[in-house]
Write a structure and sequence with these properties.
The structure holds two protein chains of two kinds. By secondary structure, chain A is mainly beta. Chain A has helices at residues 7-10, 67-72, 216-224; strands at 14-16, 24-28, 34-42, 45-54, 62-66, 94-95, 100-104, 111-116, 122-125, 134-138, 143-149, 155-161, 176-181, 184-186, 189-193, 197-202, 208-214. Classes of the chains: A mainly beta, B alpha+beta.
């Protein structure tokens, strides 16, 4: 059988907390019990509304919501009579107020969420992360990347490399963290091994954008490139 | 006392044996599903060398008869296990694990399978020793029509005569298990690397390296899936000998070849002692028929110097 590879994994050039793609995810804690409505958008266009409940009796500490999958779920045959007319899909997703909701994407890119409480108040916007939100990514392709908070222009650099030896131990890599505060990313330089987790812990408004700058091959080629014009000293001819 | 006695020296007998040895050829292929992996083989073999010894106890011994593997291709197929990224810890609990973990996304949509072939033909040697006695059998030509007389049978083309046949009847066959060159380890590693490179050939180089980094060394993966352990030669030997039973099959085939299929000598019965000739008697049929004598009770034995065939006429 020929290998069918998830090429989206390997061809992600830019990663944006406000436009989620494969291997990027945002995390928010909804500490007030109640029913929440999620508007799932792609490229700014709302695709789907889904719900989840925060219940003090729940012991669920992690609720993963796959935005790509949720956006393509078929409408159920019957919906709750009490639900809002906007709500297309009644889900039974429940989480503890001490738990975390993780929004991720299994395929595609450009996803964002706006979460509203039962009174219709916006309580979370993935395009503008806030205090105590998390943005987690995993970078695969080796090379240099820039990381930037597009809200206040704080910036830094990321270098991703393959492990020097085929160790088979990539799963044991410790996650690296960047603290995002006003006009500051700390640390400003991060070195990662391919697939290693990187988590941005936001202390202020943030939209993190990671952009690939160069690959190691391109960097090596640039260094090796010869100048177009060079000088050499001619030795006098001997007679 | 026997009417006929024919003796052949050990040298002559060795010549007879070598002729049938050189005609032996074996081809076979088989495949099995062993769960975590599939295996198949394709082989072609012949016999070479071997020293023949006539012994005083009416047996013969053939030593160091080599099985030469013209081809022994062993093909192994495995599913590469799921290769996933993600799954890292987002919120750790100090000294107590992880509170929140990233979901995993798998590189392959399905578990791909790879197969690779190890050409073991030149890397394996096997030897057989045979202890046997000599045996005579009477073979009635199956193509001969009922009622056909011995002279018409002799004249038919091909001949439809019946024969006494002389066989080597193995009593014991001993085989040295596969002796596999330690080069097979390198062979396996190279084959696996090539198979994985081929499987992932359409990916950029860094992605291939990454997949290899995730699964660990390819040979390590294969060793784990195949449960090879430390000794790959022993593993291959067990696979061929025990799982596929190749040597049992070959021994049975050689025993059958020697004892039933291929006589070392055939004696036509009735045996023509004078050929057909012109008839010198005027007025008689122009030809006189061949003179043939029927042979019965043909027996064979040997001592340490010669093989002796004895029979009666009538």
């Amino acid at each position: 059988m020929k290998a069918r590879v998830n090429l989206q994994l390997l061809k992600t050039a830019a990663i944006d907390s406000g436009a989620l793609g494969v291997l990027s995810m945002v995390v928010h804690q909804f500490s007030s019990p109640g029913r929440y409505s999620i508007a799932i958008s792609n490229q700014g266009k709302v695709l789907k509304y889904i719900q989840f409940d925060v219940d003090a009796k729940s012991e669920v500490m992690q609720l993963d919501i796959d935005l790509a999958q949720a956006a393509t779920l078929k409408k159920k045959a019957h919906t709750s009579a009490t639900s809002s007319s906007k709500i297309e899909d009644q889900t039974e997703q429940i989480i503890s107020p001490k738990g975390y909701v993780l929004f991720h994407v299994s395929s595609g890119s450009g996803y964002s969420v706006m979460v509203s409480d039962s009174l219709g108040r916006a309580v979370f916007n993935s395009m503008k992360l806030d205090n105590n939100d998390l943005f987690a990514v995993s970078l695969l392709e080796p090379g240099s990347y820039s990381m930037r908070n597009s809200i206040d222009s704080a910036a830094g650099e990321i270098t991703v490399s393959l492990p020097p030896e085929m160790s088979g131990k990539l799963k044991d890599l410790d996650t690296q963290y960047v603290d995002v505060s006003v006009k500051k990313l700390d640390p400003q330089r991060i070195e990662l091994i391919s697939t290693q987790g990187l988590v941005f812990r936001t202390k202020s408004s943030a939209r993190i954008v990671i952009t690939k700058k160069s690959t190691p091959q391109a960097e090596a080629a640039r260094i090796r490139q010869k100048p177009m014009i060079s000088w050499r000293k001619l030795e006098p001819e001997r007679k | 006392m026997a009417h006929l006695t024919i003796a052949a020296s050990e040298k002559v007998f060795t010549g007879l044996f070598e002729a049938i040895r050189d005609n032996f050829q074996l081809t076979r292929s088989d495949s099995r599903d062993f769960g975590p992996f599939t295996a198949s083989y394709s082989l072609k073999a012949h016999l070479e060398d071997g020293s023949l010894d006539l012994r005083a106890d009416n047996t013969i011994q053939i030593k160091e008869l080599d099985i030469k593997w013209d081809k022994l291709d062993l093909t192994l197929g495995i599913d590469i296990p799921e290769i996933c990224v993600g799954g890292f810890c987002i919120i750790p609990i100090p000294f107590d694990g992880c509170l929140l973990r990233a979901p995993k996304i798998c590189v392959f949509s399905k578990d791909p399978d790879i197969s690779f072939t190890l050409p073991l033909g030149g890397l394996i040697t096997s030897e057989i020793s045979v202890t046997a006695s000599l045996l005579t059998k009477y073979a009635i030509n199956p193509n001969r029509p009922a009622g056909m007389n011995d002279w018409d049978a002799q004249d038919a083309n091909p001949s439809l005569a019946n024969h006494w046949q002389l066989f080597i009847d193995p009593k014991f066959l001993d085989v040295d298990l596969f002796d596999i060159s330690d080069m097979v380890g390198d062979l396996l590693e190279n084959a696996v690397d090539a198979a994985i490179d081929n499987l992932l050939g359409f990916l950029p180089g860094w992605a291939r390296d990454l997949v290899k980094a995730i699964i660990g060394s390819a040979i390590g993966l294969i060793r784990k899936i195949l449960d090879i352990g430390d000794d790959i030669q022993e593993w291959i030997s067990d696979l061929l000998n025990v799982s596929f039973g190749i040597l049992d099959f070959i021994l049975q085939l050689i025993a059958d070849y020697l004892a039933n299929k291929t006589p070392i000598q055939e004696i036509e019965d009735p045996y023509p002692i004078m050929p057909a000739d012109d008839n010198p008697n005027p007025g008689a049929p122009p030809k006189i028929v061949p003179v043939k004598i029927p042979i019965r009770d043909l027996k064979v034995y040997n001592d340490d110097k010669e093989m002796v065939i004895q029979g009666n006429v009538g």
